[in-house]
Amino acid sequence: MSRINFCAGDWIHWHGDGCSSFKGTPGDWPAFISDYLTSNHITDLVLHGDQRLYHRIAIEKARKLGIYIAVTELGALRPGWMTLERDGLSTLSHFPNDPDAIRKIADRAGAIDLSPRFPSSFWLQTGPDVLYNLANVFLKPLYPHYQRHTIYPPVEEYLRGAARLLRQGIRDRKAREVVAKVQAVGRPYFVLPIQLEGDFQLRRHSPYDSFTDVLETVFRSFARAAPYEAQLLLKSHPLDVGFETWPQVAAELANAHGLGERVHYLDGGGLAKPFEKASGIATLNSTAGLEALQAGLPVKTLVPAHFDIAGLTHQGTLDTFWSKPELPDAGLLAAYVTALAATTQVRGSIHNRDGVAVAAENMAEKIAARALNPLGAYVDPPPRLEKARELGVPL
């Protein structure tokens, strides 16, 4: 087994036999990885995420050489799952989006144990991340040309995050009060989860340059087509540390579109309470959309998310969603979750002490057996890609 380290954080997590270091510039990487794959007789390429600069190029070179590509990511069916797909994720996923094909996969899979396991540990979620990124800051001379995939300065991000953590209880309480007030009034309301600016779901799997553009699109449609009494709840991302000042951005856009008091910002709490009486949720492509479907809510995606399937999500325009949102088909949803669990998800979690070993073992087993996207869950070309490109997604 071989591994390439790009930075000090990589080296700290894994070094020794089989490890190499790439210390060149990003411009040197294409030639380096081409030579590395051929000279080391690589048969399988395993990556966590497929849209980081180094990963995109490695996948491109590996595909030309006929190398088997396995991509991991956090699980869609959290907690206690990891995603493991062949060749690509999200818009580039080869998992079918045809309802009949999904039902057939679910039938072949049979019953799947979907009980929650391996709950996330806050310290395992944040501790390794802090160690990794701070090592890259203070040991940068060891890997001087490394280009990180995150967009914020790590030290400032962690200081901001610590400050927000101290106010977590206050923020959660205020969010509960806003939700309770909106629900008590009894008017219809929709939920829009905000996604992180650095999220590749926004940066690479959507045509938007910033989530501000997403807000502009949704607010414009809401002002034009939503029933006058309808309200809109914006939900902050739990990992947001406040670089974008979304409350001010949202207030300015709401006033510009004449929405004023109809838009509410939740800077804390979870999604369960807002989902309780919501008329639906609009999302770019967040996994919160799948949570909403599982809660029985209508969902409208702005780009072809993995779960954007006829019969599950609203297939009409965003304008029509506010007045006539399409409910998900419960049978198809159950089939989708079963098919997903049987083909692109594996048990385990990198954010749980016991779950790490389970995830590693399950992934290694499936990769060694060349059993990614089984049971007919590999469709070529990726079925979401053409529609995404028509919308301007840069893939």
Task: Give an overview in words.
The chain is of the alpha/beta class and 395 residues long. It has 16 helices and 11 strands. The chain has helices spanning 8-13, 29-39, 53-64, 99-109, 122-138, 154-166, 168-185, 200-203, 211-225, 246-256, 272-275, 288-294, 318-321, 330-343, 353-368, 385-390, and strands at residues 3-5, 19-21, 44-48, 68-74, 81-86, 189-193, 231-235, 263-266, 280-283, 299-301, 345-347. The strands form 3 sheets. A 5-stranded parallel β-sheet has the order 8-7-6-9-10, sandwiched between helices. It has a 4-stranded mixed β-sheet with strand order 3-4-5-11. Helix 2 crosses helix 3 and helix 9 (211-225) packs parallel to helix 10 (246-256). 36% of the residues are buried. The mean pLDDT is 97.
Question: How would the blueprint of this fold be written?
Answer:
Blueprint: E1 3-5, H1 8-13, E2 19-21, H2 29-39, E3 44-48, H3 53-64, E4 68-74, E5 81-86, H4 99-109, H5 122-138, H6 154-166, H7 168-185, E6 189-193, H8 200-203, H9 211-225, E7 231-235, H10 246-256, E8 263-266, H11 272-275, E9 280-283, H12 288-294, E10 299-301, H13 318-321, H14 330-343, E11 345-347, H15 353-368, H16 385-390
Parallel strand pairs: 1-2, 3-4, 6-7, 6-9, 7-8, 9-10
Antiparallel strand pairs: 4-5, 5-11
Helix pairs in contact: 2-3, 4-14, 9-10
